[in-house]
Amino acid sequence: xxxxxPPDYPDDAIAEPVHRGRGALSNESSRFDSERRIRTTDxxxxxxxAEAEDEELxxxxxxxxxxxxxxxxxxxxxxxxxxxxxxxxxxxxxxxxIYCFARPTxxxxxxxxxxxxxxxxxFKPDAAKLLVAExxxxxxxxxxxxxxxxxxxxQPVERELGITRQILGVLSDFNNPVGIVTKNHxxxxxxxxxxxxxxRNLAEVFLSVTTLDKTLARDMExxxxxxxxxxxxxxxxxxxxxxxxxxTAPMIPGLNDHEMxxxxxxxxxxxxxxxxxxxxxxxLEIKELFEEWLRQRRPDRAERVLSLxxxxxxxxxxxxxxxxxxxxxxxxxxxxxxxxxxxxKRLGLNRIRYRLDTLRFSVPEHARTALVDARRDAxxxxxx
Length: 384
Known about the structure:
- This protein is α/β, with parallel strands linked by helices.
- The N and C termini lie far apart (about 75 Å).
- The chain is built from 12 helices and 10 strands.
- Mean pLDDT is about 85; it is low at about 1-15 and about 40-55.
């Protein structure tokens, strides 16, 4: 029989108390730390009043730190994704999706991929300014800029900071196309920019919908928009003339994969014309974080879900090979893919592939002037 708690936990380890509104249940050290910190018990909790045992901890506050990056366009060479450049206005994501494949990137900041990832965020206040400089550079060659491929550009802090909106303004000025993936209804705030860009064939948006079950969504993606709000966003974007699709991602066998057809039907009814899917990815620290969450939040399904995942991953919880990491392999992965294909065909999705226009790209005069001024100032600084 398999253990009833994540592997490598000492016998006296106990689960972290639940932080309301957060996805991860723990905040263990990253793979780069020389010491591993875990929470253990010395027996004193047995003397505590019984009624205190199930209390939740007070909500964790989100903290923001300025990211002093000097570039904003990230380059991609993976054959598994259809873009070669992306922008992430934020590092870390307050949505707190327990399965998020970006969680391990927080380890590079000496932070935990657990609760740190969703509570200790870095933001890029100079993103728009940096983007102007990069797009105006003579060596830049226009292509679609992807947003939401790592962390969500419309996570809750965007409401106050507005960095994503500033970036969209720059892309619109340069006539540079953009493709967005988000789980947040907040994308409708920028319909004025997106609709204007869509009229020039410069914008496309995908809403990620993993479940229609609001209880599962609240547990699995605690600070993302509720499923019905994401469907409302699809409708609003479609009504405004913005090409919009749905990502049923990730599909987790035994947990939400049975909803795939219902999600696609609801999205199509709301106006989605395109669709995509991926299966669950559990690289690095996410394996332990997801198993910990699964055993506490869905203990009745944990063994079955983990078994099905291994059946899609050659007996492991994850495969990192290109071509396999997004779709998996074996009968279960093949069945999910076949179901997706059949539903997409039946609903008339993916009949049109939008070819966003890169030929409209042009550097606005104000950006040319700013570039010339910056070069002049740089030369003057060298002479001093």
